[in-house]
Amino acid sequence: VWVSRVREEMLSTEVEVVAELGVTEVTPERFREWKTGDTIMLGNDVTDPLVIKVQGMPKVKGFPGVSRGLKAIQVTEVIEPENL
Q1: Helix (H) or strand (E) holding 33
Q2: Over the stretch 22-73, which tens digit does the pLDDT of each residue have?
Q3: How many CB atoms lie within 10 A of CB 56?
Q4: Domains in the chain, ordered, with CATH?
Q5: How far is CA 12 from the centre of its chain?
Q6: Do the Cβ atoms of 41 and 72 come closer than 8 Å?
Q7: Residue 9 above 80 pLDDT?
Q8: Residue 7 belongs to what H/E stretch?
Q9: Which pTM was predicted?
Q10: Nearest to 61 by CA among 77, 43, 72, 74
Q11: Cα four-point dihedral sign 43, 60, 73, 34
Q12: Nearest Cα to 79, choosing from 64, 58, 62, 48?
């Protein structure tokens, strides 16, 4: 009985999923100078797939789009643990 309760609890737990547009490094000085309208270069091409992270860990790659009127990501590649 307790095993099924634990399983049910685990399956209903929510995790954070983030679609990462890109990454860059800036100095604190440059960060303080940011203002509305500035462009931040992310170091990747707009044709590159986005990295999707689950609980901060890269899990899949995909391309953004729209599905049923909502923003979505179409998964194109599963990131294997050895490729991290």
Answers
A1: helix 28-33
A2: 999 999 999 999 999 999 999 889 999 999 999 999 999 999 999 999 999 9
A3: 8
A4: 15-83 (2.30.330.10)
A5: 21
A6: no
A7: yes
A8: helix 2-12
A9: 0.73
A10: 77
A11: negative
A12: 58
CB atoms within 10 A of CB 38: 8
Distance CA 17, CA 5 (A): 25
Tokens in use for 20?
Answer: 């990462």
Q: In whole angstroms, what is the distance from residue 58 CA to residue 75 CA? A: 13
Side-by-side strand order, sheet with 50-54? 17-20, 50-54, 57-67, 70-78
CB contact at 8 A, 64 and 51: no
Which single residue is written with the structure tokens 């307790």?
Answer: 2
Does 84 score more than 60 pLDDT? no
